[in-house]
Design brief:
Elements (H helix, E strand, L loop, with lengths): L11 E3 L5 E3 L7 E6 L6 H12 L1 H6 L2 E7 L3 H11 L4 E4 L4 H6 L3 E4 L2 E4 L2 E5 L5 E5 L7 H16 L1
Parallel strand pairs: 3-4, 4-5
Antiparallel strand pairs: 1-2, 3-8, 6-7, 8-9
């Protein structure tokens, strides 16, 4: 896993609407990039709902937020529509970003999936904190608290 202190890899990935989103779109801003295994599965749905429910808190704290999985744009669109998500989900169908970050894979019931991981990126594009094997329950609150502390130290 790419550790804190390294630059976050550049990316250009489509969101659920097919709009290409790049790392440079977030230049000068704090960014949370969370990686999740699969659209419309229990843990991933809980995590998406929690981030949608707290999006206003992230916005108020000046923190941008995107989710990423290997699912395609159509899958993300259906997932966002079904659960009325207000967050962007990026499609890393070739897994290039996940591989560049060194995110691990696990296997469940014979299927491989990317492990749930989160990266906090500072306004300069540097990874400030990495969360591995994330528990989706309450993760959004941990992130908000941790980033507020990081921002206070940087001020």
């Amino acid at each position: 896993m790419l550790p804190a202190g390294n630059p976050f890899p550049n990316f250009a990935l489509p969101n659920q609407d097919g709009k290409i989103t790049k790392l440079s779109d977030y230049a000068g801003e704090w960014l949370v990039v969370y990686f999740y295994p699969k659209d419309d599965t229990p843990g991933c749905t809980a995590q998406g709902k929690a981030f949608t429910a707290t999006k206003a808190d992230f916005d108020a704290a000046g923190i941008k937020l995107v989710g990423v999985s290997a699912d395609d744009v159509a899958s993300h669109k259906n997932f966002c529509t079904k659960f009325v998500f207000t967050i962007d989900l990026l499609a890393d169908t070739g897994s290039g970003l996940m591989k560049a970050l060194g995110i691990g894979q696990a296997e469940w019931k014979g299927m491989k999936f990317w492990e749930r991981s989160t990266f906090v990126v500072d306004p300069n594009g540097t990874i400030r904190k990495v969360y591995e094997k994330v528990n989706p329950e309450g993760h959004e609150k941990v992130l908000l608290d941790d980033i507020k502390q990081m921002k206070a130290k940087a001020a």
